[in-house]
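Design request, tokens follow.
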């Protein structure tokens, strides 16, 4: 059902609706149920994995507005075309199409959309270190699950930290928000490096 609805909405987008409207409508109508802890954990895992592999790929790409990637890192991989702008070392990442992300430690597979207005990942280098503060300024993610996809919008509330020496997000850094059906929101923090997350309690 969700895939049929998404297909219809994408068709609607091609006939006049912009990407922002389509993504907002999809999330509001068929987004993740914030009360379903298992699905929200899946959404949080997809968010942190996406940030990790996109950060890694963006650093590898450098200043390149058409960087095709299909690369497998230690914890996961990413395939797609990144648009990376380097402004005095600060990397801003968007994409004109879907980015396919996958985990090497479980069966998680996700599609990341960074092409609507305001959707981007920003990497800010921390002086004197090999780390970057990583901020996600809105993205729409669909996790491919048999039966029912997990669909949500996400953004960081405080930056995560990517350590380029070990090619991974640092544990106990960052907080992000998952927005699902009916605009309901739940936040999480990242424990890492094993990928564990702490969810905020239900209201």
């Amino acid at each position: 059902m969700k895939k049929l609805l998404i297909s219809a909405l994408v068709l609607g987008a091609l006939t006049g609706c912009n990407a922002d409207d389509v993504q907002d409508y999809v999330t509001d109508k068929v987004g993740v149920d914030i009360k379903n802890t298992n699905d929200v954990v899946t959404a949080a895992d997809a968010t942190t994995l996406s940030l990790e592999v996109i950060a890694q790929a963006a650093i590898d790409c450098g200043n390149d507005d058409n960087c095709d990637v299909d690369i497998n890192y230690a914890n996961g991989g990413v395939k797609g075309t990144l648009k990376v702008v380097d402004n005095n070392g600060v990397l801003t990442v968007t994409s004109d199409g879907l980015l396919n992300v996958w985990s090497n430690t479980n069966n998680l597979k996700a599609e990341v959309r960074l092409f609507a207005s305001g959707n981007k990942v920003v990497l800010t280098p921390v002086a004197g270190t090999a780390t970057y503060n990583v901020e996600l300024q809105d993205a729409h993610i669909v996790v491919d699950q048999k039966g029912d996809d997990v669909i949500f919008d996400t953004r960081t509330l405080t930056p995560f930290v990517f350590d380029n020496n070990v090619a991974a997000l640092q544990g106990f850094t960052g907080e992000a928000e998952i927005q699902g059906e009916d605009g309901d929101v739940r936040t999480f923090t990242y424990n890492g490096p094993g990928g564990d997350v702490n969810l905020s309690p239900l209201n």
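Comment from the thread starter after seeing the answer: thanks! The longest helix spans residues 37-61.
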